[in-house]
UniProtKB/TrEMBL annotation:
This is histidine kinase. It is a multi-pass membrane protein. GO terms for molecular function: protein histidine kinase activity. Its main location: membrane. It comes from Kineosporia succinea.
Length: 860
């Protein structure tokens, strides 16, 4: 059997939690209970140490971590001791790495599983659910937390409370912290405002725990009456326009009732076929209002609205229930007492407030009866009711001597059922009345008189009339329910499709509006948003200057009031529709479309903002990388050149001709490097801006390769070149092609080992010329090929001669600007091959829409 947990909860350090726990331990020991101290932290407080002196204290376990020594509760020793009650301080404590459990509350759970009763302590700031609130209040993050559920499972929670002034006096007297920490603590964490807020948090958290216990007790004891232990005001919403008035009055009522809780509830019919005439848009706005006023919104499902409303109110232990006076007319009230009266009669001890509002008595005089079978079937029913009953009468008059009156009644009843099946209620009523008259006139003695001689015949005709009317009403009701069920199914399928609809393509909002238009057969659907700078207008719904079109399909409307129907999503967004007015039963589905359209609009706006921020972020990243790279790579040649020039100009130093030539060569080399870096930066800037000047023309690839090798100088003598025998020309800018080749060759030289120099091969096929720069260096993994073309990125260690990482990025950009491609390949046997592809002069692409890089490439 698991043991019991008792928690002493404090609002702040120093309120006396540990002292209270030790007091309880002493009381239990005096009653003969076996009590031990598993772990108690005294923090050097004399009163706490005195309380421990005469209790059995179990030894702690020593743990070494990162060269330091710590002590923790020895769980194994406590389990071996097997006491009835164990005192364990600081429930939220984090154990030193290497301990049996990560958290002390996990240690305590082991003790509970062993059947021991544990007394422990915790401060409210260590509870997981309010840890962030405490940080906002005090500005001090609490890294040690305990899950709320661990504390809520305790058999008893005792709040150890103390006024803020008393805590500060204890602090000032040195009863909480050491003297050197007192001033800082009083000026920061232990301020009166902080302590007051923490105290309120502790009271509210414990009040919720007590409320849960009360609800559990009431449920276990089957108590349905309201216990006014805590004021709760429930306001019932129908979705009508009167809801906001009821919410505000209920909020004022709650504020006067010692800050009672405010709960709003809407009862949705569970048959899915009828509604209270409410509007989804009204409910959305009313839910927002309730939450703004500090209340909560709830929705329950039930067919019996008064019963469902009372069940919810009793379930939350409500003390007051706010209802609106019925919107129904006096004539409607004659047929049913209404929700207000029924709820009041069943409320018991709960107070019910019936609030007046502007919609009182604004309902319809009588419920509208609709025929469920359509106009054509109703016409067929009337025809059948008159002609069919007449034909049946002619037939039965010929058989009057052979068939009894009872059989005549049954046949007429069958005819009424047939008419009801064909035409519904009203044709069947006509058939029943006409059949009653004809039965009386032609078949009930005395014949051909509107009188009845026998009481049995009177009963038969009366039963026929009642049964005929009942059957007619039943058939009509079944037809109506069938139509409503089909409508509800179609509505559910539409909403299900809308809920699971994956918006694909570049214009998800337009796709959604197009689906709305197709679903309801509209000519146009326009989502409008009120302009932020729109001035208040008396005719806002028809003022084009106040609205802007977000998205539209079909006919575009410039104002919400310009169409046949309007769905107001909120005060700033409206959905305007044209084509035909919306049926009342369609508005709920359209409202769902409108809500989804607003979500799509927000997503589209966020996507646009993200797209706009993307280039800015890229520019910022480039700028940061550029500053990082330039700070080193541009400084290096400048420093070398400055040092050489400074040496030449140094007074009193004479250099030989060879030394002067060497220094001048160093200056020239440094300035050349600096020139290349600046040129690369400028070219990359022009590429990104689309302002790079190009002069494409037929260019000899062999001549360009030779010029590139001359540009490299003596290191280029190591490079092996394999050119085809035929004369090849490519279409491109010769200067840019040379720039690309120089960058590729220098890169290959940098990574090729001395014994395996780079190689250049040139080949032509399918109208393109491929120039491959092959090295036998370490190579690059294929998953990182794209990374080498990013500006200011470099794989491997950095040295003073690698540049700012623009070489390959610039080379690919220049190649693609000339209509070619630059891609890496793995060199057989190890290394990297850079393949530059350009269109052969005079050749046409097989597919003008395909990039050159998509053409086939040959091997080395």
């Amino acid at each position: 059997m698991a043991g019991q947990l008792r928690v002493h909860l404090g609002a702040a350090p120093g309120v006396g939690k540990t002292y209270k726990m030790l007091e309880e331990g002493h009381r239990r020991r005096e009653r003969g209970t076996d009590v031990v101290v598993g772990y108690v932290e005294t923090h050097g407080r004399e009163q706490t140490e005195a309380m421990i002196a005469d209790l059995e204290v179990l030894p702690r376990r020593t743990v070494t971590y990162r060269g330091a020594t710590f002590t923790e509760m020895d769980v194994e020793a406590v389990l071996e001791r097997g006491a009835e009650v164990v005192l364990v301080d600081e429930l939220a404590h984090t154990n030193v790495p290497g301990s049996r459990n990560a958290k002390r509350w996990q240690d305590i759970e082991e003790l509970l599983d062993a059947g021991m009763t544990v007394l422990t302590t915790v401060n409210v700031q260590h509870l997981e659910s309010i840890n962030d609130i405490v940080r906002q209040i005090t500005g001090v993050p609490q890294r040690e937390t305990v899950p709320d559920e661990v504390v809520r499972r305790a058999e008893a929670i005792e709040l150890v409370d103390m006024a803020p002034e008393a805590i500060r006096r204890r602090m000032a007297h040195g009863n909480i912290y050491r003297p050197e920490k007192i001033d800082a603590a009083l000026g920061n964490y232990f301020r009166v405002g902080n302590l007051t807020a923490l105290r309120e948090l502790a009271l509210l958290w414990l009040a919720d725990k007590v409320d849960d216990e009360l609800s559990s007790y009431r449920a276990a004891q089957g108590i349905s009456e309201t216990w006014e232990a805590r004021e709760r005001v429930v306001v019932a919403l129908t979705g009508g326009p009167e809801g906001e008035t009821l919410i505000r009055r209920a909020a004022r009522l709650a504020s006067r009732s010692r800050g009672a809780d405010l709960l709003a509830v809407h009862v949705a019919r569970n048959d899915g076929l009828s509604s209270s005439g409410g509007s989804h848009a009204h409910l959305v706005a009313q839910r927002t209002l309730v939450e703004d006023l500090g209340g909560t919104y709830h929705q329950v499902v039930g067919n019996d609205i008064p019963r469902s409303l009372l069940a919810f109110a009793r379930g939350v232990n409500a003390t007051e229930l706010v209802l609106g006076v019925s919107r129904r007319s006096r004539l409607q009230s004659l047929f049913s007492p209404g929700v207000g009266v029924t709820t009041t009669n069943g409320a018991g001890s709960m107070d019910v407030h019936l609030m007046t509002h502007g919609q009182v008595r604004q309902g319809r005089a009588l419920p509208k009866v609709e025929n469920a079978l359509g106009r054509n079937r109703r016409i067929y029913g009337f025809v059948l009711a008159t002609l069919g009953i007449g034909v049946l009468t002619l037939l039965l008059t010929q058989l009057r001597d052979r068939i009894s009156l009872d059989s005549d009644v049954l046949l007429y009843l069958a005819a009424v059922v047939v008419v009801a099946l064909v035409g519904g209620l009203w044709p069947a009523l006509v058939a029943a009345l006409l059949g009653t008259f004809l039965l009386n006139f032609y078949f009930a003695p005395p014949i051909h008189e509107v009188t009845i001689a026998s009481g049995e015949n009177i009963l038969a005709l009366a039963v026929f009339l009642v049964v005929g009317v009942a059957v007619s009403a039943t058939v009509d009701r079944a037809a109506r329910r069938t139509r409503e069920a089909a409508s509800a199914q179609a509505e559910a399928e539409t909403l299900s499709t809308l809920a699971g609809h994956v918006l694909r393509g570049a214009e998800p909002l337009s796709a959604l509006l197009d689906q709305l238009r197709e679903t309801f057969g509209l000519n146009g659907a326009t989502l409008l948003q009120r302009r932020p700078d729109a001035a208040p207008s008396p005719d806002l719904q028809h003022d084009p200057e106040s609205w802007e079109v977000v998205a539209s399909v079909g006919r575009t409307l410039r104002t919400p009031g310009a169409g046949d129907a309007e769905v107001l999503v909120d005060e700033k967004v409206s959905l305007a529709l044209c084509g035909h007015p919306l049926a009342a039963e369609d508005r709920r589905v359209v409202q769902a479309f409108a809500a989804q359209a607003v979500v799509a609009m927000r997503q589209q706006q966020l996507s646009e903002q993200a797209a706009a921020a993307g280039p800015l972020a890229e520019v910022d990243r480039m700028r940061t990388a550029l500053l990082s790279a330039v700070s080193h790579d541009l400084r290096t040649p400048l420093a070398a050149a400055k040092a050489a020039v400074g040496g030449l100009r140094a007074p009193g130093v004479e250099f030989s001709a060879e030394d002067q030539a060497e220094l001048l060569a160093s200056v020239e080399e440094s300035l050349d490097r600096l020139t290349r870096l600046v040129e690369n930066l400028l070219d990359m800037s022009r590429l990104q801006a689309g302002a790079l000047a190009m002069h494409p023309q037929p260019t000899s690839i062999a001549e360009t390769v030779a010029i590139s090798l001359d540009e490299i100088g003596s290191p280029g003598e190591r490079i092996a070149v394999h050119l085809p025998e035929e004369f090849l020309e490519v279409t491109g800018d010769p200067v840019l092609i040379e720039r690309v080749l120089v960058n590729l060759l220098r890169n290959a030289l940098r990574y090729s080992p001395p014994e395996s120099p780079p190689m250049v091969t040139v080949s032509a096929h399918a109208g393109v010329v491929e120039v491959k720069v092959i090295d036998r260096g370490p190579g690059i993994p294929s998953e990182k090929w794209d990374d080498v073309f990013l500006p200011f990125q470099r794989l491997g260690d950095r040295d003073n001669g690698t540049g700012v990482g623009l070489g390959l990025a610039l080379s690919r950009g220049l190649t693609e600007a000339m209509g070619g491609s630059l891609v890496p390949e793995t060199t057989p046997g190890g290394g990297l091959t850079m393949v530059m592809t350009l269109r052969q002069a005079g050749a046409r692409r097989p597919d003008e829409d395909a990039p050159v890089g998509a053409l086939s490439r040959g091997g080395t």
